[in-house]
Amino acid sequence: MSHQQTAAILEAVPDFLTEEIDAGPPQDDHPMALLLEEFDDSYVNQPQQGDIRHGVVVDKRAGELLIDIGYKSEGIVTGREVDRLEGDFKEMTIGDEVPVYVMREDRDGNLLLSISRARAESDWKHAEELLESQDMFTGSVSGFNRGGVIVKIGQVRGFVPASQLSSESQSRQLTEGEPDNRWMKLMDAELRMKVIDLDRRRNRLILSERVAIREWRREQKERLLESLEESTVCDGVVSSLADFGAFVNLGGADGLIHLSELSWGRISHPKEVVSIGEKIQVMVLNVDRERKRIGLSLRRLLPEPWETVPDRYEVGQIVRGVVTKLVHFGAFARLEGDTIEGLIHISELTERRITHPSEVVTEDQGLELRIIRIDTDKRRMGLSLKQVSPEEESVEFDWEPVPLEENEANADNSAADNSAAENSAAENSVEAAAEDQAEADSEQAGPAEAPEAARVVA
């Protein structure tokens, strides 16, 4: 049939038939349109490898889970993926919602899923957020090697190099034994950390405790400086020692106990009173918010020894002491079992004439001494070595101060200088030192009464 014949036949079709043909069924209800819509939805919702979906457990079998993720068929979690779940697999029940990672389809067309991979992807994303925000977090040490420790963020293993551990953590390392076990004491320890490096392709996640602790302490110090008030009592831990004092951690911020505020007695190093790691109570002396410094005291929470001296000692009493220092005008001795020090004037060391105390006593030497003077107001005690065992029993002693000649002024000046040197770091001692010096100068210049033999600085 030619084209002309075909055209003639079409023209012969009645108009009412062509209108019906043109109208046809509604477009939305056309079977082909419905099939196309179903195809489009199926294609759009089709899971792709690497997708993370949320599914529901619909069946649980031995070593296998069926997960509904809204696809035409359920996905399967099986084999090694189940083994990686360990205890979580036993706790899962039908109806539980779980995130899953789409892996691939097997030969039978089953969609293989992984719950552990989905969790790891979520953990990596969380680690990336921590790196971007630089927020601190707390994690537990799950492993170690000679180079550092391992801390997990979820299921992602992060590494904390030894150089990124805090000084407190580093102090806990083992110095003996195998090098691989040097961080054994940190196992299961809770550490505060920050993410400092992340490379997903290389499966690299580097953490730092040192950076986190430094920032945390700075924040804590700001809070403490705002909240601390003078004369308040705080609990702390001795964090480090120096020649000039001890540093105490008050909960993230360190304060300093100066050497002069550690003890009422004279000490040469803080280790004589405290040790690193020791828990103590301290009093806040001052807070310098501009320089961000906190001054502390330990001795002010202890009884002041001179307040109880009249109850414990009396003139004429025999005591035992240890020589602590030799000066040209005499020797200082600390009473045994006490922080009180007294002065043995050079004239009270022996009956014979000497030019220096070293001719009779030495430092650290233990002696039997007699108390010949107590002045609690000026914190002074006079001691005598020669009056402990007088050579002539018939001689009576009233244990009163013995007059001196030219040595009295030098003794007062030297004693005042020693007192000022010992207490220069303590704020409450400046006026006392100045008063002693003024008194010594006035006694040296004026005629007054007979000078006293035993002027001492406790």
Question: What does it look like?
Answer:
27% of the residues lie in helices and 30% in strands. 27% of the residues are buried. The longest helix has 19 residues, at 115-133. The protein has helices at 3-12, 15-23, 31-45, 80-85, 87-91, 115-133, 167-170, 209-227, 309-312, 407-422, 430-445; strands at 52-61, 64-68, 75-78, 97-105, 111-114, 137-145, 148-153, 156-161, 190-199, 204-208, 233-242, 245-249, 254-258, 279-288, 293-297, 318-327, 330-335, 341-345, 366-375, 380-384. The protein has 4 domains: 23-118, OB fold (Dihydrolipoamide Acetyltransferase, E2P) (Beta Barrel); 134-214, OB fold (Dihydrolipoamide Acetyltransferase, E2P) (Beta Barrel); 233-301, Nucleic acid-binding proteins (OB fold (Dihydrolipoamide Acetyltransferase, E2P), Beta Barrel), CATH 2.40.50; 309-445, Beta Barrel (OB fold (Dihydrolipoamide Acetyltransferase, E2P)). The strands form 4 sheets. The protein has a 5-stranded mixed β-barrel with strand order 1-2-3-5-4. A 5-stranded antiparallel beta sheet has the order 8-7-6-9-10. It has a 5-stranded mixed beta barrel with strand order 11-12-13-15-14. The chain is built from 11 helices and 20 strands. The model is unreliable at 16-21, 39-43, 391-398, 400-411 and 413-458 (pLDDT under 50). With 458 residues, the chain is of the alpha+beta class.
